[in-house]
């Protein structure tokens, strides 16, 4: 198999072709490299291209010219430290303007950045720094610095780390470099941060990067195994940036909030797309600040993972549940909207009087929660679920679902304002080829397909077939009009002892549309029947329990209460009524834990870590199947 070559210093071999570009080339693309995108940003002459919130809560702007000068200053520091082409620089930070500057500065000198989720533990961070042989790490806060320091103490011999840069100015340790100090030092030099001057030598270095050069190592979140470093080249990312948003009509008048972790390729792709169109990006480093940020910034583009949309829906339903009148009004409005979904999905405003009344009473208020100006809603990172998509369409919001993987840079297919179909993930991008294997696994190829897993040749070989098609691991179908539908993950399909295949994600999505359910995980592989573990939305459950007079002192007591069990049985029974007999959940358990990223049950993109859940609840699962041999299937 044609394998991307990496030398002892982690640099891509100069003679290595883009072996997996399929029949497509990058000719005619507006971008050949991410560095082309940086130079495009520098030339937009926009006064407030980036927004960030200071300690006083005020939104500050950074112009396109200032982006250029800050990138140039940081890049020159990296060069002074001896960082060169192919060397790795890690970024351990929440979303903030310094993240983008570090990204562009790293790529500008031909180095490779390694984004690391800020929620990871010191041990996990140390492993990624070691595996990537990163020479520099740029951290956001003292807390992140402390995790790096702990990793160095326990694994110093295995690390290549030479420099630590900290974004926050306060409490900078003696052995770390202040990001702000680097910016101030540049300000004092000729051609400082406020200068409109360009640097010909620096620009030449930026332009010397080739499409085949490695740009980033993105470690997968690892739902089923150890994280692997996905090698994406400049050409991979540039080709995806050019084609993924082609039909959306974004302009410099648009803006988005960057709140999904930039360590995830979905969030990074959105930022690159906004940069591509000269649009504005506002950074929101904490999810709990998102509602206020939406009202303050008033974005026109909103991109979220399905769990964000599910939480927004649950919030609306929970708020209306506080009053019987509000609950009736919401139910009526959703019913009215359901009859006008076609117009909403086509971007039209329904003309009926009842819809206009429902819009004034309900839909407009939901729209205002997003800031009141969003014209494009996109979902990615995991399956949205047709129930969630239908609900939003019924309240006047068309959510356009897309699909892709870290390994595909990321977008493979996406619904657009021009071409969309509910329940699908849209049509494949023009530069992506798709086909189905004999078992309906989706195979793809094109210029956005990654070059392999970092230092894992065997794992790389395993995900390409003999004709160099990338095997996505997703089960799919393609309709007669070319729309792609993802039904489940191949490795996550449950096979009952009777030989029936059950796709868990669509069933779990149906369960999660209920306000009382936070997460759900189907189990039953190689068993006679399927069961489900349910992690409640405790805010909603505890509010319900209070109205019912249930005197539980702990969450464990609460989920064991007979009235709570009956409540969840009714939810499961209603979903079972929509399923084939072999798919139905014969038994369930409500757990006393709220599954989350921090507690380890969810990935940073809010997908279930099934391996973690099955190991953590092994005893509970065993109880569900204790009498399996004699139980009726």
Question: What would you say this structure looks like, in words?
Answer:
The chain is α/β, with parallel strands linked by helices. The strands form 7 sheets. Strands 4-3-5-6-7 form a 5-stranded parallel sheet, with helices on both faces. The protein has a 5-stranded mixed sheet with strand order 12-13-14-15-16. Strand 23 (517-523) and strand 24 form a beta hairpin. Helix 1 packs across helix 2. The radius of gyration is 25 Å and the shape is globular. 48% of the residues are buried. Residues 1-28 have low confidence and may be disordered.
C-alpha termini separation: 46 Å
CA-atom Rg in angstroms: 25 Å
The count of β-strands is 25
Mean pLDDT level: 91
Helix content, binned percent: 25-40%
Task: Please identify the structural class as seen in this structure.
Answer: alpha/beta
Write out the strand line-up for the largest beta sheet, numbering strands in chain order.
4-3-5-6-7
Describe the oligomeric state of these chains in a short phrase.
single chain
- Helix count from the secondary structure assignment: 22
Strand content: 15-25%
Q: Which of globular, elongated, flat, extended, rod-shaped describes the shape?
A: globular
Name the poorly predicted regions: 1-28
In short:
The chain has 633 residues and is an alpha/beta fold.
Helix and strand topology:
Blueprint: H1 34-42, E1 50-53, E2 59-62, H2 64-80, E3 88-92, H3 97-108, E4 112-116, H4 122-132, E5 136-139, H5 142-155, E6 163-166, E7 177-178, H6 179-187, H7 200-207, E8 214-219, E9 229-233, H8 234-244, E10 255-258, H9 265-276, E11 280-283, H10 290-297, E12 301-304, H11 306-321, H12 324-338, H13 341-345, H14 353-369, E13 376-379, H15 386-394, E14 399-404, E15 411-414, E16 427-428, E17 433-436, E18 441-445, H16 457-462, E19 470-478, E20 484-489, E21 494-495, E22 501-502, H17 504-512, E23 517-523, E24 530-536, H18 538-548, H19 555-560, H20 562-576, E25 585-590, H21 610-616, H22 618-624
Parallel strand pairs: 1-11, 3-4, 3-5, 5-6, 6-7, 10-11, 12-13, 13-14, 24-25
Antiparallel strand pairs: 1-2, 8-9, 14-15, 15-16, 17-18, 18-19, 19-20, 21-22, 23-24
Helix pairs in contact: 1-2, 2-3, 4-5, 8-9, 11-12, 12-14, 12-15
């Amino acid at each position: 198999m044609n394998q991307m070559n990496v030398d002892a210093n982690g640099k891509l071999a100069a003679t290595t072709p883009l072996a997996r570009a399929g029949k497509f080339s990058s000719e005619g693309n507006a971008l050949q490299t991410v560095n082309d995108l940086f130079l495009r940003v520098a030339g937009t002459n926009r006064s407030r291209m980036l927004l960030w919130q200071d300690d006083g809560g005020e939104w500050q702007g950074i112009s396109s010219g200032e982006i250029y000068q800050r990138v140039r200053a940081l890049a020159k520091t990296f060069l002074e430290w001896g960082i060169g082409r192919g060397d790795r620089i890690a970024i351990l930070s929440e979303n903030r303007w310094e993240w983008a500057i570090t990204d562009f500065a790293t790529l500008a000198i031909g180095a490779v950045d390694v984004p690391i989720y800020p929620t990871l533990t010191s041990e996990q961070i140390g492993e990624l720094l070691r595996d990537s042989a990163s020479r520099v790490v740029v951290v956001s806060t003292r807390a992140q610095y402390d995790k790096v320091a702990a990793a160095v103490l326990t694994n110093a011999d295995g690390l290549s780390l030479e420099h630590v840069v900290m974004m926050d100015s306060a409490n900078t340790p003696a052995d770390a470099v202040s990001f702000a100090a680097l910016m101030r030092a540049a300000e004092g030099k000729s051609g400082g941060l406020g200068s409109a001057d360009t640097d010909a030598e620096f620009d030449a270095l930026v332009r010397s990067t080739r499409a085949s050069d490695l740009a980033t190592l993105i470690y997968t979140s690892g739902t089923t195994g150890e994280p692997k470093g996905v090698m994406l080249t400049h050409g991979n990312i540039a080709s995806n940036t050019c084609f993924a948003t082609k039909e959306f009509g974004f302009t410099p008048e648009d803006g988005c909030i960057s709140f999904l972790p930039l360590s995830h390729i979905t969030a990074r792709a959105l930022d690159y797309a906004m940069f591509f169109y000269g649009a504005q990006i506002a950074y929101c480093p904490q999810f709990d600040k998102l509602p206020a940020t939406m009202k303050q910034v008033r974005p026109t583009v909103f991109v979220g993972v399905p769990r964000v949309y599910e939480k927004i829906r649950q919030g609306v339903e929970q708020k209306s549940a506080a009053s019987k009148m509000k609950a009736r009004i919401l139910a009526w409005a959703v019913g009215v909207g359901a009859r006008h979904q076609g117009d909403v999905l086509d971007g039209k405003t329904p003309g009926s009087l009842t819809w206009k009344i429902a819009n004034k009473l309900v839909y407009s208020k939901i729209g205002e929660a997003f800031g009141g100006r969003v014209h494009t809603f996109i979902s990615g990172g995991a399956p949205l679920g047709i129930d969630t998509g239908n609900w939003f369409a019924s309240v006047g919001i068309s959510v356009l679902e897309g699909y892709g993987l870290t390994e595909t840079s990321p977008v493979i297919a996406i619904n657009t304002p021009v071409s969309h179909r509910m329940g699908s993930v849209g049509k494949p991008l023009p530069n992506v080829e798709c086909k189905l294997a004999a078992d309906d696994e989706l195979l793809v190829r094109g210029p956005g397909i990654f070059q392999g897993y970092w230092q894992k040749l065997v794992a790389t070989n395993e995900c390409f077939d003999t004709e160099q098609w990338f095997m996505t691991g997703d089960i799919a179908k393609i309709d007669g009009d070319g729309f792609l539908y993802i039904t489940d993950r191949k490795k996550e399909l449950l096979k009952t002892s009777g030989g029936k295949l059950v796709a868990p994600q669509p069933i779990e999505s149906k369960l999660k549309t209920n306000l009382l359910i936070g997460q759900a995980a189907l189990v039953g592989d190689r068993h006679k029947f399927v069961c489900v573990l349910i992690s409640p939305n405790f805010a909603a459950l505890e509010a319900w329990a209070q109205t019912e007079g249930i005197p539980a002192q702990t969450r464990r007591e609460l989920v064991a209460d007979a009235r709570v069990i009956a409540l969840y049985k009714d939810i499961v029974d209603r979903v079972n009524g929509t399923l084939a007999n072999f798919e139905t959940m014969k038994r369930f358990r409500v757990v006393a834990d709220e599954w989350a990223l921090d507690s380890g049950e969810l990935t940073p993109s809010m997908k279930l870590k099934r391996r973690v859940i099955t190991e953590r609840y092994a005893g509970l699962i065993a109880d569900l199947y204790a009498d399996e041999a004699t139980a009726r299937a």
